[in-house]
Amino acid sequence: MIEKCSTLEATESSELLKSLAMNQIPMPFVVVDKASKITYMNPAACKWARKDLKEAIGVMCFSLFPSPDCTLEGRPVSEAMKYDRTVIKQIRVQRGNEMVQTDFTAAPLKDDKGKVIGGLEFVVDITDRLDAESRAQQLRMEILELSTPVLSLWDSILCIPLIGTLDSKRTQDVMEKALVRLAEEKARVIVIDITGVPVIDTMVANHLIRMSSAVKLMGGDCILTGISPATAKTIVHLGINLSSISTCASLSQGLEKGMKIVNKERGTQ
Amino acid sequence: MEMIEIHIESDIVRARQAARSLAESLGFSILSKTRVATAVSELARNTFTYGGGGSMKLEKISDRTRVGVHCIFVDKGPGIEDIVKAMTPGYTTGKGLGFGLSGSKRLMDDFKIESEVGNGTRIEVIKWK
After folding, report:
1. Residue A69 CB burial class (10 angstroms; 0-12, 13-18, ≥19)
2. Do A237 and B97 touch (CB under 8 A)?
3. Which of B9, B38, B99 lies nearest to residue A167, judging by beta carbons?
4. Are the beta carbons of B9 and A206 closer than 8 angstroms?
5. In A, which residues are within 8 Å of B33 by CB distance?
6. A41, A140, A164, B30: most buried, per Cβ within 10 A?
7. In terms of residue numbers, what domain contains A217?
8. pLDDT tens by residue, A63-94
9. How many CA within 13 A on the CB side of residue B36?
């Protein structure tokens, strides 16, 4: 029988399969009656609560799985039984001495006539997922830091290759960095290349205009490069006036223009 | 059909990317794709900044001869007092350039705006291929 079962072929052993599966579901699973007293729980739940099934039966479920996030009335399982629907909540549940972040799912248990006779509770430990999410968030922040380099392109010429989305925070970062470098390196021209910016909307344009006027205030010049034909046409349709910024189609043309500015000033000195 | 909630700044990017990829799948030209993405970016930003967040409904629309991208932005914000004024290029109550609404109207083919003070704003736009 067991041998048959291990190959998952036997249909007649489905009862056995069910009980094997039930006992081996790795997440805690609890069945309660309408008064929230435990009538069954799987081994994973017993392990979580550190109780035998015998000890657990008849105990109120919230005393074995206490959560500081639930009031007596607001428990997921009461809500599930009361409103006859599945309830999923992110709550903390105590396990031994520690507090575990969980996805707590509660569903009504119904008899064959559809009458609610109790509730089902599933507990999924999401500590690892939350950790991964916060790590991802941290990585995003780090990438943001790295993603706005200011390069020295030529004598007195700086370059900022902008890639990706420009939000307020990022533009602020770039602007600050660029102005500091402009002062530090006594640069004359900043070439801003926007080939890698997918959309120039009014906000991005506004940021670029402000950046350009800040550079001008410091006696520098801003050259905007890398505007694609589609972007150029879209900017015109939007009605934005970028004429206060000098622009070039490509980075190399921008560099050429920057060098002209620098050389011209040196020539007249 | 796709619903995109707009509650944080990065949701604007999601809205824009969704609109752009829908336009792409319908075979829009590069220019049209850029127009759609830019207009959606503007309108999603309005929803986020002035409407206090909301949602965008994005779907394909078609009639007998053509297909297009159809977006509806809904927020439950303070609403717009004077729509005519708000649609005037260069007019803004915030820190922007004031070309968002008027510009999006020019970028899209159909543009419908409804707003009630205290009850929020609904903007519906279509760009045909």
Report:
1. middle
2. no
3. B9
4. no
5. 230
6. A41
7. 147-267
8. 888 888 877 667 888 888 888 999 988 888 88
9. 31
